[in-house]
Specification:
The complex is a heterodimer of chains A (642) and B (377).
Chain A: H1 2-45, H2 47-58, E1 59-64, E2 71-72, E3 78-90, H3 98-105, H4 113-125, E4 132-138, H5 140-149, E5 156-165, H6 173-176, E6 178-181, H7 184-192, E7 204-208, H8 209-213, H9 215-219, E8 223-229, E9 235-242, E10 249-252, H10 256-266, E11 271-277, E12 282-289, H11 303-311, H12 320-323, H13 333-342, E13 351-354, E14 357-359, E15 366-368, E16 376-379, H14 380-386, H15 389-399, H16 401-410, H17 432-439, H18 445-451, H19 462-473, E17 477-479, E18 484-488, E19 495-496, E20 501-504, H20 509-522, H21 530-533, E21 541-547, E22 570-577, E23 584-590, H22 596-613, H23 635-641
Parallel strand pairs in A: 2-10
Antiparallel strand pairs in A: 1-8, 2-3, 3-4, 3-5, 6-7, 8-9, 10-18, 11-12, 11-23, 13-16, 14-15, 17-20, 18-19, 21-22, 22-23
Chain B: H1 2-9, H2 15-35, H3 40-61, H4 65-89, E1 91-93, E2 96-101, E3 106-107, H5 109-127, H6 134-152, H7 157-173, H8 178-202, H9 214-224, H10 234-247, H11 258-261, H12 273-305, H13 310-334, H14 352-376
Helix pairs in contact in B: 2-3, 2-12, 3-14, 4-5, 4-6, 5-6, 5-7, 5-13, 5-14, 6-7, 7-13, 10-12, 12-13, 13-14
The chains are: A alpha+beta (642), B mainly alpha (377).
């Protein structure tokens, strides 16, 4: 009975269990059916949509940065070159512990404290998702060591990058300039000028010098690659590509050898030199001393080097030829002389008896000559040769500031020279109008007097002074000064830059000749720069100048020894040679160099000797101080190319 | 002689079920080769996993159900102790404590519970067979909720849910009154339909549901509309549906799935392997896989139906159901109809632990199938 009950109960239980199994089976079938419907929906109904999605997902356009154009000197010597090297770059947002990662990387590749500091500085300046270089130019061995351990370092990648390199280092740094990493300001400028897409694959942009001024030519056109990617954006396979167009090469008017001689001639002195071929406006040398090593800037300068360069009293980063404004001093006199002659004043045989000072009518103020007691009888030619102040005080006064400024303007005073380098300053040729605007004061007659000897408000850049000299040497034909003689698009023949006549000043040839004769006598015995012309195989026309840094009070004499070095006068020197058929015109300024003939003149002579005769300067008696950058170039950069 | 030995070896093996399983595992290796980026190491390691799992299957197929019944309680207690151990001293991996390092090996107690919980519940209902009352269901529910709670705490939402659902099937098969079963099912259907209709306002910015943590709410909202968060929570779903959908009817061909091969899919050889499969073999492949799974489940249900004791019937029924649940949750997740929870595709996904657990389950099924005559007589 009991057993039967149990049995029936068991059967009943089994029956009810099977019903539940059946319900469960039906339930499962419905749900699998649901999945089947879902699969059908995704794979059949919506196939086209997902197919397109998949195509878009995996194919993307990747920019291929073009090779930057090279910069060559007039003889084809490379001044800016490219090479390819490994860099180790970190995307901070992908790295959990930056310090730990960097110290772990330090066990695989050498990371100097300077590398680290530069990284930290760049990190501060960039956003977290941007790649920042930690080490550049890894050796093959280091690259291989990292590649093996790469899986340990998410967010750290090894890239082959194009590097800019300035093989001549500090030589001509202010001409060539440098490139640097694209920053927010550059990014905005690119966007504003509609060039942002062409820089998609670029990390660097010209920041100074020709690298900046010719950026659009040097950069080239970015190519594209259709790339199959994974979800992390890593390229797997290239489907098609539109190759980039490399940037154009620049062939310069500069002779780098001449440039180097000119720089060496400065020794450890500060100053500038610009040498121009008067017959076409080509710039032969363009010196700003002290100079710096542009290689330091390419991947972000380390803070120490930056501090050393930026805070140096010598201001190595300033482009002195373009942005250094100096009173022209007596180098202005030939132009005043020419202005006078063209205005019909002081034509020979006019001469004055120089008492050693000039005095305006109705005034007791004495405008002193540099030579106490005066030069005796002085005519126009002699006035230039001996640099007679008294003669030019009176001439300026008689000409008046307006006529003087107008005439000087034709020679480029007070205007930008129009050189193909950005950042030029225009100097200052003062006028009453300018003074009223600037100081809200009237023009005083005495101010005209001192303009006659290149003092007062008058300011010139070495570039302007060289250009004015070239125009004079060329009898009034003004060519636009330029540093680039030809632009060579990749794979094409060079396109020469045609010399452009900016102005043609109508001069009476006799007047010009008179001034030139005076300048030629400057380098002859009795002239202010007789030593400069001594033993020269060609005739040099020149003019010395001295520009006051500190105003000298009345009845006080200038005593160089008593003034601290930085308050000493600037030495100026302009010249062209050979005087009968000028091939080179130049302007030299040596800051705090004292008298132009003795410090600036010899520098000019060395440059002319090399350019005209191919004569290299004899080794200086004392070891010539090599122009040295504020800090030695980073070791890695010298290793590769030197 | 050898054939006799082989016959002896295969005595407790259900040849039909084994055949289907081997077919599915072969398919798994084919897909894995593609999904692992043709990584031979992954292949050999998974081959070893399969051999170990087959060994476990054979072992459990040879353990008579009444022996299993005897170890049910100790196994459950062991599992609970280990779960508490994980809770106190567990290893952390990917932000969750799931592993217990025993020095010689790291074990995942939650995996053990996938088998131990249904065994425990089947044992309990078998014991209370003659006089089941409502209180027994309450007690069974407690036996179920305790481990689920601990697993949830790790946190491992996926496994907790699987264990919970498997336990519920045991309770259902044990005969829980329809009056209790139906209302939650109906309520569930209503909630899902209501959510789908109102998802716009429910998932609006700033709406807080209170009953769920923020990230859980996000998961559910993202499920309804993956485009809400294309690079975050919706990323997996979007990428997986693109992979599946672009597979079309016949697929892009083995090793030719662009989505899978190009690394768009995260976890493509583990939880999201179905996306690789569906992309490369298309709807036809998916339906084939569903069919294989359905046959496996069907065989399990048939074995359950012919089980000779309450314990074996309940255990077999829940093992078959568990397999269904695993498969459905994973496929639903990959195809974008369920939230993304870390559940592998049974038999196909790479990984040894879950495979061994599954094969133990199938071993138990075979044991129940091949031992029933013995028990009956």
């Amino acid at each position: 009975m009991n057993a039967r009950f149990t049995l029936r109960n068991t059967q009943q239980e089994q029956y009810s269990f099977r019903i539940r199994l059946g319900v469960a089976a039906a339930f499962m079938l419905i749900f699998f059916g649901l999945l089947a419907v879902r699969f059908f929906y995704l794979q059949i109904t919506r196939y086209d949509y997902y197919h397109t999605q998949a195509e878009n997902n995996r194919i993307s356009l990747v920019p291929t940065p073009p090779a930057r154009g090279l910069i060559l000197d007039r003889n084809g010597v490379k001044l800016a070159d490219n090479f390819f090297a490994y860099t180790l770059e970190i995307t901070p947002s992908k790295v959990a512990n930056l310090d730990a990662t960097i110290s772990a990387l330090g066990r695989l590749v050498e990371i100097t404290p300077a590398d680290r500091r530069r990284f930290d500085r760049l990190h501060e300046q960039s956003r977290d998702f941007e790649r920042i270089p930690l080490r550049t130019q890894l050796t093959e061995l280091e690259a291989a060591r990292f590649a093996v351990e790469r899986y340990r370092f998410p967010g750290v990648e090894l890239y082959t990058r194009q590097f800019r390199y300035y093989p001549r280092g500090a030589v001509g740094a202010h001409i060539i300039g440098y490139i640097g990493r694209i920053n927010d300001v550059d990014q905005k400028n690119l966007a504003d000028s509609g060039n942002a897409s062409n820089y998609k694959g670029s990390d660097h942009i010209g920041k100074s010098g020709l690298e900046e001024s010719y950026e659009s030519r040097l950069h080239g056109i970015t190519g594209t690659q259709q790339v199959e990617n994974d979800a992390g954006g890593h390229a797997i396979r290239v489907l098609s590509s539109q190759p980039p167009t490399p940037g154009s090469d620049l062939v310069l008017t500069i002779d780098i050898k001449l440039q180097e001689i000119a720089e060496k001639a400065f020794g450890d002195k500060r100053g500038a030199l610009v040498a121009i071929d008067p017959s076409n406006g080509q710039i032969l040398a363009f010196v700003s001393m002290p100079t710096y090593d542009p290689n330091l800037f390419i991947n972000g300068i380390d803070p120490e080097s930056w501090k050393a360069l930026n805070e140096s009293l010598d201001k190595p980063l300033i482009n002195r030829p373009l942005r250094g404004a100096y009173p022209p001093g007596s180098t202005f006199k030939p132009f005043v002389a020419l202005a006078g002659l063209e205005a019909g004043l002081r034509e020979p045989p006019f001469s004055i008896s120089d008492p050693g000072f000039y005095k305006l009518d109705g005034s007791t103020h004495l405008y002193r000559d540099w030579k106490a007691g005066g030069h005796g009888m002085v005519d126009m030619k002699k006035a230039i040769t001996i640099s007679c102040d008294t003669f030019f005080y009176g001439l300026a006064q008689e000409l008046g500031i307006m006529r003087l400024a107008e005439f000087a303007g034709h020679f480029g005073f007070g205007k930008k020279s129009g050189i193909d380098l950005d950042g030029e300053l225009g100097g200052l040729m003062p006028t009453p109008e300018w003074k009223k605007k600037r100081f809200k004061q009237p023009w005083y007659p005495g101010e005209t007097v001192i303009v006659g000897i290149g003092q007062g408000y008058t300011l010139v850049t070495p570039m302007q002074l060289a250009q004015a000299t070239a125009i004079l040497a060329n009898n009034g034909t003004a060519y636009r000064p330029h540093l680039v003689s030809a632009i060579q698009p990749s794979g094409e023949s060079p396109r020469p830059v045609v010399p452009e006549v900016m102005d043609q000043i109508t001069l009476n040839p006799e007047h010009a000749e008179l001034v030139k004769q005076g300048m030629m006598d400057v380098t002859k015995p009795g002239g202010t720069a007789a030593s400069v012309g001594a033993g020269a195989a060609y005739i040099i026309a020149a003019k010395t100048g001295t520009a006051q840094v500190v105003g000298i009070k009345q009845n006080e004499s200038y005593n160089a020894a008593a003034l601290s070095e930085r308050n000493r006068d600037h030495a100026l020197f302009i010249a062209y040679a050979p005087a009968d058929a000028p091939k080179i015109a130049l302007a030299v300024i040596v800051e705090n160099g004292g008298h132009g003939g003795s410090t600036a003149g010899p520098i000019a002579r060395q440059v002319m000797d090399y350019y005209l005769l191919g004569k290299e300067p004899a080794p200086a008696p004392k070891p010539a101080a090599k122009p040295k950058p504020a800090t030695p170039p980073a070791e890695e950069e010298t290793e590769v190319y030197d | 002689m050898i054939s006799a030995w082989l016959r002896q070896l295969g005595k407790r093996i259900d040849k039909f079920l084994l055949g289907i399983l081997l077919l599915t595992l072969l398919l798994a290796l084919v897909v894995l080769f593609s999904a692992s980026g043709q990584n031979p190491e992954r292949m050999s390691s998974q081959a070893v996993n399969i051999l170990i799992a087959l060994g476990a299957l054979w072992l459990f197929a040879n353990i008579p159900p009444q022996h299993l019944q005897r170890i049910a309680v100790p196994l459950y207690l062991l599992g609970m102790i280990l779960l508490v151990g994980v809770f106190l001293f567990g290893d952390t991996s990917k932000g969750a404590q799931r592993w217990l390092n025993l020095g010689v090996m790291r074990i995942q107690p939650s995996e053990l519970m996938k088998i131990a919980v249904p065994m425990m519940l089947a044992w309990y209902f078998d014991r209370r067979d003659q006089s089941l009352r409502f209180l027994d269901y309450i007690f069974a529910a407690i036996l179920l909720v305790l481990p689920v709670g601990l697993i949830l705490k790790q946190p491992d939402l996926g496994t907790a849910m699987l264990v919970l659902l498997t336990g519920i099937t045991v309770i259902f098969f044990a005969g829980l009154s329809w009056k209790v079963v139906l209302p939650p099912v109906i309520l569930g259907v209503i909630v899902v339909v209501w959510f789908i209709l109102n998802q716009g306002s429910l998932c609006a910015d700033g709406v807080q549901w209170q009953i769920m943590r923020d990230y859980q709410q996000q998961r559910i909202c993202t499920l309804a509309n993956p485009a809400r968060d294309p690079l975050g929570a919706g990323y997996h779903t979007i990428q997986a549906t693109i992979a599946l959908g672009s597979g079309g009817l016949a697929g892009k061909g083995w090793l030719h799935g662009t989505q899978s091969q190009l690394d768009f899919l995260p976890e493509r050889h583990t939880d999201f392997i179905l996306a690789v499969f569906g992309e490369e073999f298309g709807l036809i492949g998916n339906l084939l896989l569903l069919t294989l799974f359905a046959i496996i489940i069907g065989r399990g249900l048939v074995i359950a139906a012919s089980g000779s004791t309450t314990f074996s019937r309940l255990l077999a029924g829940s093992i078959a159901s568990a397999f269904f649940i695993y498969a459905f949750v994973n496929m639903g997740m990959v195809s974008g109809i369920l939230p993304v929870v870390g559940v592998p595709l049974p038999l196909i996904s790479y990984g040894g632990t879950s495979l061994v657990t599954l094969m133990i389950g199938f071993g138990i099924l075979m044991s129940i199938q091949t031992h029933k005559k013995l028990v009956q007589t």
